[in-house]
Design a protein that fits this description.
Elements: E1 2-4, H1 7-15, E2 20-22, E3 35-41, H2 50-63, E4 64-75, E5 80-81, E6 84-85, H3 87-90, H4 120-135, E7 161-167, H5 189-194, E8 197-203, H6 209-215, E9 220-228, E10 231-238
Parallel strand pairs: 1-2, 3-4
Antiparallel strand pairs: 4-10, 5-6, 7-8, 9-10
Length: 239
């Protein structure tokens, strides 16, 4: 049984005859102790506070039966580890003059399709996003520079808390042309119409951070903690 915050993704699962439903990772409508195993891939790094990130792990553990196991993947701050670059850093785009298009219905585990954009429009979006969150009473602490940094695609991280621009497939296309084959110079009017830019919040995890959060729960034993292609991963067991 799968679940996701995105109704579009859940609908795709339904079309493929998979069992899935829409829910929030902080409140999963499944009976406590009813799962043999749980998997959380590329989810927890989207929560904006340490308290929420820990709460998602606690909710995951709640679902497990005693002796049940969970696998958790989060994006790593360290994209170069033991002198090896991650797949994310290696997969640089060949051309700077084209826009990579991402289907609005696609999700990914090791996140590898983020697109950078340094336009003033994007900077304004990041300002607006943070100010909106403050207006809504989020528990983000005030900082001297109120802007979250916008990450540049296929580069190392310089902040644990950041915004990643996503160019989503959409907009207009000429008759007879496939959206996949229409490419315009990045930043052009045509490009912006074709690929609207959205910002997603990420907290990238430092070495040991995910494991420490798991170990802080007294009902959990960490079986394994490891690095995998730019992700920190933990396998835990419910006691």
């Amino acid at each position: 049984v799968g679940c996701d915050r995105s109704k579009n993704l859940v609908d795709i699962c339904g079309e493929k005859n998979f069992q899935a439903f829409v829910c929030d990772a902080l409140s999963v409508p499944i009976r406590s102790g009813s799962c043999d195993a749980c998997i959380s891939i590329a989810v927890i790094h989207h929560f904006s506070t340490a308290e929420r990130r820990l709460a998602t792990i606690r909710e995951l553990v709640r679902l497990l039966r005693p002796g049940g196991t969970a696998l958790i993947y989060v994006w790593a701050m360290e994209q170069e580890y033991k002198n090896q670059k991650s797949k994310y850093l290696k997969e640089k785009n060949g051309s700077k003059d084209t826009v990579e298009e991402i289907s609005t219905g696609m999700a990914q585990g090791p996140l590898s399709d983020q697109m950078p954009d340094s336009s003033s429009q994007d900077s304004a979006c990041s300002d607006r996003l943070l100010h909106d969150s403050k207006d809504e009473g989020c528990d983000a602490k005030p900082v001297a520079d109120s802007r979250l940094p916008v990450h540049t695609n296929r580069t190392s991280f310089h902040s644990q808390d950041l915004l990643v621009p996503w160019h989503l497939k959409g907009g207009t296309k000429k008759k007879g042309e496939s959206v996949d084959t229409v490419l315009f110079p990045a930043g052009s009017k045509e490009s912006q119409e074709l690929s609207p830019v959205f910002h997603r919040y990420y907290h990238v995890f430092c070495e040991g951070e995910l494991e420490a959060a798991c170990r802080s729960l007294d009902c959990v034993r960490v079986q394994k903690s490891y690095y995998d292609q730019g992700n920190w991963c933990v396998v835990l067991e419910k006691l």
